[in-house]
């Protein structure tokens, strides 16, 4: 028992699954299951295809990219498959609205072929490449097209979850067309007014054949409908934890333009001595940074800016000069370094040499003795992410590890397409 306990102590430092075989004496089934289980259990054990449904200019691609980013962030190997990209590769980008006429048999056959090619890639990703979730981004606006998805997935034991975006607000539709569609590869080099006119005709082609998900006809399918972005939701046959989680996520996102500012706290006393963790006050230089931060924020002239901090003194003191509503989040506290609290990295290497080596092997999954890993931080930050999606303008004053985890969710490469504009404020204000 002593040897086993010692082995557990050596292996529990990371959040990877423990795979050693325990001795046959003195260990019941429950204990064996606990030792073998990963710290963060998988969200799903069955591959899933998440298929978007809706007319053009209803925000499907925006939702698809958000879902792909979110699912990858919580640890699911996810890929987005945009059928429009397959179509552009097969027949070229610049196709007039008549190409999308359901009565145009030649074009219809070409579009179905593109959808089948994308579905084959979905199968390869989920069944042979280690994928866990695929987001199938297309209109999928008819019963026949949705049956095509089911026929490719269900026999392969791939779950299917439909997300339909419905919008009958002309202003929202026009805004989406002007903001996204006219700048797509389909209209490269074409006059804006001509592009808008052609795209509206394209929508009309889809409208004639459009078949929405129906509570009677599709009662055995898993789906959720989103009406006018966040006005109303309708859900059917939500099966399992992941689908419930996706519905909750979809109920939180919105497309209003707003700014998110991420700011590390000012220099602390522990920073001066190179010590990690702790709950020390700001240094003199940290106080100077807090005052400069106020000047910077005042210049931005942001209406209704909310200030979020962790519950540690260095973030609260950094925000102390800022007017407005302040909220303290325990979830924003710095990564818990456990037994290494207030030590320097040199002291950690001297006191815990094996721990120091383990950390270098896998910094994301390494867990400090009696502390946390980056993976743990990601999981406790999920409520913060949900609230960020719901809110408008927010300044988040937090810590280095926490900020890294938030930045992996906010994809800075797609800020042009993402209405959640993000700014990072570092110590360079000084």
Protein architecture, described:
With 430 residues, this protein is of the alpha/beta class. 43% of the residues lie in helices and 14% in strands. It is built from 17 helices and eleven strands. It has helices at residues 2-11, 29-36, 60-73, 83-91, 105-128, 143-153, 170-179, 192-209, 240-250, 269-272, 284-300, 313-318, 345-351, 353-361, 374-380, 382-390, 400-409, and strands at residues 48-53, 78-82, 133-137, 159-166, 222-227, 232-236, 258-264, 306-309, 326-328, 394-398, 420-425. The strands form two sheets. Strands 2-3-1-4-5-6 form a six-stranded mixed beta sheet, with helices on both faces. The chain has a five-stranded parallel beta sheet with strand order 9-8-10-7-11. Helix 4 packs across helix 5 and helix 5 (105-128) runs parallel beside helix 6. The longest helix has 24 residues, at 105-128. The model is unreliable at 1-39 and 412-420 (pLDDT under 50).
Radius of gyration: 25 Å
Low-confidence parts, pLDDT < 50 over ≥5 residues? Answer: 1-39, 412-420
Cα-to-Cα separation, first versus last residue: 56 Å
Structural class: alpha/beta
Give a count of the beta strands, DSSP E runs of length 2 or more: 11
Elements, N to C (H/E):
HHEHEHHEHEHHEEHEHHEHEHHHHEHE
Q: What's the main sheet like?
A: 6 strands, mixed
- The tally of helices reads 17
Mean pLDDT: 85
Which percent bin holds the helix content?
40-55%
Q: Strands across the major sheet, in which order?
A: 2-3-1-4-5-6
Shape: globular
State which percent range the strand residues make up.
Answer: 5-15%
